[in-house]
Amino acid sequence: MLEKIIFLGSCHWRNCFALITVSLLLLLSGCNSTYVKSDSDTDSNSVPASVFRNSLQYSNSTQDYNSKVNHTIFKLDFIHYIVTRNRNQGPIDLITLRRMVKNWNSVATSPKEIIKFKDYHFYRFASLSNNNSDCSRISSCHIDLTDVNILVKWMDFQVRKITHMPTNDRLAKSRVRILNPTNHNNLHKTLLMINSDPVGANLIQNAISYGTIIRVKELSGKHGYYNFTRNEIVIDPKILNYEFNMRYLVHELVHATNHTRNNSISEEVLSEIIGLSVQNRITNIPFEMNPYSMFVEHLLHSNYGSLPVTNNIQQSLGQTGITLQ
């Protein structure tokens, strides 16, 4: 489970992402773009990075530059640059991308605009889709628009698109102790709070139906995990003492909807998103998040980066009664 989650203190991220997403979708759909003359005689179709920095200058003041994402090739403005380069000259290889980053940094006006290029970021980007089955230092791979499309989906994802099917709330409350065989008092209180939320109630009902149990155990700094083999959630007692930590238990309840052994980056991110959305409704103190940044940080994380990009988690949630659009 992700030990760190991104919280954004104001809603201007959504407006910024919506506008940038629209721009990217227009580019991906084949909309004609304005020709910009290059300063390079040998690269007549390239678009200088400064064009994108200037056209999206308003967004620089609103983006959270504390996020590591904004110093990588996954920076929103730079993605715009990648899209246009793809449309003009086709897929991008490692050498080309390294040169693009160098050009970008050469016109940077402040340290917060600098991109720190790392080869493995290229390999993660280029392997997002199935266009490169084995993208590594010993193989030839490229970033193309199918890779970018995966990122665009996360740019457009919003928590309000999570819906649910009605569940028998009274029945779930009467049976909630089934999940808590040791009758841990704080666990019971937390489960009742989660059960008061419609999406949380669906997750609890699923766990009860499939015989999942929850154990409380000291985890030395970790929040919790789901053991597929034993069909049990193990949770640290400290997170049960504070209502703003209940998202970690919801996160594991989302994992418990996946009745296979396969995990994915998408499953981890959706578990974070659903966990925080349930917590926000219960506490009535909403924390905002950025699904795109969350996805990229998982993608580049040492523990999660090796996972497949996606699996059948949305279908599993759908069978539980939770739909994400």
Could you walk me through the main structural features you see in this protein, from its secondary elements to its overall organization?
This protein has 325 residues and is mainly alpha-helical. The chain folds into 2 domains: 12-156, no CATH class; 160-324, no CATH class. The protein is 47% helix and 6% strand. The protein has 14 helices and 5 strands. It has helices at residues 12-28, 49-55, 57-60, 76-89, 94-106, 119-126, 145-156, 169-175, 185-195, 198-209, 246-255, 265-283, 291-300, 313-320, and strands at residues 162-164, 213-216, 224-227, 232-235, 322-324. The strands form 2 sheets. It has a 3-stranded mixed beta sheet, covered by helices on one side. A hairpin with a 4-residue loop joins strand 3 and strand 4 (232-235). Helix 7 (145-156) packs across helix 13 (291-300) and helix 11 packs across helix 12 (265-283). 38% of the residues are buried. Residues 1-14 and 31-66 have low confidence and may be disordered.
List the helices and strands and how they pair.
Blueprint: H1 12-28, H2 49-55, H3 57-60, H4 76-89, H5 94-106, H6 119-126, H7 145-156, E1 162-164, H8 169-175, H9 185-195, H10 198-209, E2 213-216, E3 224-227, E4 232-235, H11 246-255, H12 265-283, H13 291-300, H14 313-320, E5 322-324
Parallel strand pairs: 2-4
Antiparallel strand pairs: 1-5, 3-4
